[in-house]
Design goal:
By secondary structure, the protein is α+β, with helices and mostly antiparallel strands. The protein contains five helices and five strands, in the order αααββαββαβ. The chain is elongated, with a radius of gyration of 28 Å.
């Protein structure tokens, strides 16, 4: 979850910087008076003067450095894009059947079975489960449990681990099924004492 929040914060900051710079350039182009320290002085000003654009043209290192820097920026942007678009949910789990071939278990089926069993335990009002990892390696579970107000979190976690999680691990034939469990209390109104 932290990487998702960090990704959103970075995207928001980059968006705000681009919006501020682009909006200020547009405002100056439309006739607004910029402050004295601003890079543009008026609507007919250019970002780089001819002398600034051609200053390093004679240097042998200039164009390879510019192209290298742009290539690094493009590669970082592509890496970021693939990290955002990559699927976090495990679609299939490889189950060892003992015959050497194995079988494929749909990830959503295991998620829904695990969530339903967790929601049936005492004190849990709602459960969400997400399988993570790769098909050929041991998958992991990311679960969120909403607890009733009078339930002890340690007891609910122990029941989930010994019950639902153990059943899912045994039914899928997995040696281990690591889990990250987030516990939240259901919001409720304060009770009045009369």
């Amino acid at each position: 979850m932290r990487s998702g929040v960090l990704n959103r914060v970075l995207l928001a900051l980059v968006g705000l910087v681009l919006l501020a710079v682009g909006g200020s350039v547009l405002a100056v182009a439309l006739g607004a008076r910029p402050p004295s320290w601003w890079i543009h002085t008026g609507p007919h000003d250019v970002l780089l003067t001819r002398a600034e654009r051609t200053h390093w043209r004679g240097a042998d290192w200039w164009w390879p450095a510019v192209m290298g820097a742009l290539a690094v920026v493009v590669l970082l942007a592509l890496w970021w894009l693939t990290a955002v678009l990559r699927r976090r949910r495990l679609t299939e789990v490889l189950v060892d059947t003992g015959d050497g071939k194995g079988a494929l278990l749909r990830g959503r089926a295991l998620e829904s079975a695990l969530a339903e069993e967790a929601a049936r335990q005492d004190g849990v009002s709602h459960a969400q489960v997400l399988l993570r990892g790769r098909r050929r390696t041991a998958p992991g579970v990311s679960a969120g449990l909403q607890l009733e107000p009078d339930v002890a979190p340690a007891a609910a976690l122990e029941t989930f681990t010994a019950g639902s999680l153990a059943h899912a691990r045994e039914s899928a034939g997995l040696a281990a099924l690591p889990a990250e469990v987030r516990l939240r209390a259901v919001r409720h109104r304060a009770e009045r004492v009369t």
